Amino acid sequence: MEEEDQQKVADLVKELVIRLVSPESHPPIPNSSDLQSSLRYAIRLLSSRLTPSVAPDAAAIAESTKRRLATEGKSSQALTFADLYTKFASKTGPGSVNNKWAVLYLLKIISEDRKNVNSQLDSSVLLPNLDFNDAELGNESRVLGVRGNKDKGWSNGVLLVSKDPENLREIAFREFVNLVKEENEVSEEALVRDVLYACQGIDGNYVKFDTNADGYVLSELIKVPRATRIMVRKLCELGWLFRKVKGYISESMDGFPSEDVGTIGQAFCAALQDELSDYYKLLAVLEAQAMNPIPLVSETASSGNYLSMRRLSVWFAEPMVKMRLMAVLVDKCRVLRGGAMAGAIHMHAQHGDPLVHEFMGRLLRRVCSPLFEMVRSWVLEGELEDVFAEFFIVGQPVKAESLWREGYMLHAGMLPSFISQSLAQRILRTGKSINFLRVCCEDRGWADAATEAAAAAGTTTRRWGLGYGETDALELLVDGAAKRVDKHLLNVIYNQYKFKEHCLAIKRYLLLGQGDFVQYLMDIVGPELSEPANTISSFQLAGLLETAIRSSNAQYDDRDILDRLKVKMMPHETGDRGWDVFSLEYDARVPLDTVFTESVMTKYLRIFNFLWKLRRVEHALIGAWKTMKPNCITSRSFMKLQNAVKLQLLSTLRRCQVLWDEMNHFVSNFQYYIMFEVLEVSWSNFLNEMEVAKDLDDLLAAHEKYLHSIVEKSLLGERSQTLYNSLFALFDLILKFRSHADRLSEGINELQARTMESSVPSRDKSKTKKRVNDKSSEPGSWISDGRKALTQRAGEFLRNMGQDLDAVAKEYSSLLEDFISKLPMQQHVDLKFLLFRLDFTEFYSQLRPSK
User: What region holds the Gamma tubulin complex component C-terminal domain (predicted)?
Assistant: First the structure.
């Protein structure tokens, strides 16, 4: 059947040649040499690989022909052609023409040859049956045509442009083939196959991997042109890159434990493997094309699916870009893991090439999927799903009181570059808030807040709801979750755990803001605290504390608050009194101990000790004033003393009263400054900041600022140590003055008792003598002496007391001057205001220049 088809084709070709070559009036001789030559030439043309330079589109050629006819004004012919083409194109099956576009193209070329008037050719130059009418060309064209027939190589009406009667072209082809075989020991098809093998990491027959050269090379023993060797080396670069990427994947997934790779590393390897899968598909297509033979000369090659070295370089252009990028990422990420790996890959995504940008985006979506799942789980559930330590948030086991400050922290090394520092801080705080509510507050209301946040952000709480490139959605989710969870947390702290009430209780009891309670407590514990510290019972002091609570307005406070107030005895040394070691403490339980940490309570203890010392000094001056009341020297018994002794007594009392006034002025103003300018102002600012706090960090910062303000303004800061030492020297001197005032009071009482004894009638002397008998037995007592000795002893006592008071006054003036002189050097403006209060009349300012 095939032989019949071939014979039929040959007959049709012969008939076509006869019709084209011979005119209708002169039938051709069947075996003439011209006819046989034209037939052989036609068969050579049909069997050659020459193809037209147009796309094989029959519809386009038909449309072009129809449009040309219409443009020339031949509308009827255009319609006729369109109808004929429709019938021609619709005919299928046996007897129809398969290659319709070639037939149309042939007819189009023939028509163009007939219309080519500008070529100045006559009918003898063209095919006889396609000649123009004499009227169209004229006689002149015939003459020119006959003369040009011999010059231009025309023969028998056929243009001999591509006709090679001596087969020179075929001879040249054969010589070229022989030359190629001499220069190449290996055919191009074999080299293409070896290159494809090398691109899969497999050694071929001629192209093998050389460890010394670290790449695939063509053996020097094989004779090939230098250009071919260079081409092979360039193409095999893809195989070297593939080997690197494939080795990293195998090493990471098989050789390393999963702890060293992590979920993000595994996702990176999986993404690379997916890209290699597409690469394998491309190689499969290329291998199929490599099975087709390569034409000898590219100029005569058809567009068949063969694969040459040059075509392979074109095919490898895009895979080479991707493979190079993957190799760079492999080198960069070899020592990285977790968020650091995702950040390093993200840096290479900042590229202007759309191909690279799209490739990196697809890769990063796979790589960052575990990271974004960790973020979602942490923000919405408070769960730190980081088995391999890849997340930029790390947790560590701590006590409940340290959970907020030390339980979770940012790991800067694992923070990817596409997540900003501020966003990372918000992510950290949101998860911390959920964990704080769950662990410390035992609250589950955060779950509803997280669900509302996810709904507001347009995402869901399901897994894998976020991905790379959705930074805006991530920020919206984090902001919504942080806002709702933090608000719920503050509500729990304020309402359920009564944070404000506990802060107020600490202010009233540890900062001595409850005046009646502090005064009563100092009155009843004073005698106990005057004893040596090692003889004082803390249980007895606890009972006195409870008595002070019940005897003051503190009894109306919440019982839970009062139960947290306890007595604390600080470590003491030999010689310490109870005043030196007594303090109060407040038991801040979970979750309040997050705010009132051990270090914070230590600061409160320092402030309490300072305020307690100030109140003790005030209490001492009040006690001294009670013994120095004016009615104690108006008694008649002093009227019987000698004038000299009486004047000396009044002088001493006046000196003591003046010194008391000076000390009381200083203590009163300083206490006013502490209670109102320091404590009340700081408390008011703290309340204002507490109202505007948006999260627990803001609340902690506000409380830290409140406490820091009190410490700095109360001279307890590091920069105020010299002023603090001067102040406590003044306090110690005032307490020393109190002891002198007590001695003076006791001496005056003894003098008054002796004077009364001397003025009692004789019948009552026995009673008086019996009443003062105990005192008279004491060594150095005045009562055992006579009136003269009494006067002498009284004068000596008053003289000594006067000297002691003068020494105290002199030392007090020196210390006070030193204290006031240091106040202007303080940086805090409130301390400068203290100077204004102490030296309001500029009394001390006028004293300093005079000295």
Answer: 501-844
Residues 187-210, mean pLDDT to the nearest whole number:
89
**Would you state the pLDDT for residue 755?**
67
User: In degrees rounded to 5, what are phi and psi of residue 275?
Assistant: -65, -40
Residues 221 and 164 in one domain: no
Please report the pLDDT score of residue 721 as a whole number: 87
Long-range pairs, 299-303, Cβ under 8 A, ≥24: 300/48, 300/49, 300/50, 301/49, 302/49, 302/51, 303/51
pLDDT, residue 152, reads: 42
The pLDDT tens digits for 375-407 are: 988 988 888 888 888 899 999 888 888 889 889
Residue type, 568: K
- Please give the pLDDT value at position 706: 96
Both 840 and 741 in a single domain?
yes
Identity at 610, one-letter amino acid code: F
Nearest CA-CA partner of 347 in 358, 369, 332: 332
Q: Evaluate whether residue 603 is within a structural domain.
A: no
The verdict on 284 and 394 lying in the same domain is no
Rounded to 5 degrees, φ, ψ at 831 are: -70, -35
132 and 271, same domain (yes or no)? no
Domain of 77 in residue numbering reads as 2-170
Alpha-carbon distance of 394 to 381, in angstroms, equals: 16
Could you tell me where the beta strands, DSSP code E, fall in 328-466? 393-395, 408-410
Q: How far is CA 776 from CA 142, 333, 750, 781, in A?
A: 174, 99, 10, 6
201-222: pLDDT as tens digits: 898 888 888 888 888 888 888 8
pLDDT digits (tens, 9 = 90+) for 449-484: 777 777 766 565 555 567 787 888 888 888 888 888
Encode pLDDT of 432-455 as tens digits. 999 999 888 888 887 777 777 777
Picking from 466, 496, 526, the residue at the C-terminal end of a domain is 496
Instruction: Compute the distance between CA of residue 671 and CA of residue 764 in angstroms, rounded to an integer.
Output: 51
Is this prediction's pTM over 0.70? no
The residue written with tokens 């049956």 in the block is 129
Tally the domains of the chain. 4
Let me know if 6 is exposed, middle or buried by CB neighbors in 10 A (0-12, 13-18, 19+): exposed
Q: Report which of 359, 366, 335, 413 is spatially closest to residue 264, judged by C-alpha positions.
A: 366
The helix (H) or strand (E) run that includes residue 209 is strand 207-210
Q: Which residue has the tokens 């006690």?
A: 623
Judged against a pLDDT cut of 50, whether residue 765 lies above it is answered with: no
- Looking at the DSSP bridge assignments, the partners of residue 408 are 395
Any domain includes 385: yes
Burial of 231 (0-12, 13-18, 19+ CB in 10 A): buried
Instruction: Identify whether residues 227 and 354 lie together within a single domain.
Output: no
Cα–Cα distance, 132 to 387 (Å, whole number): 90
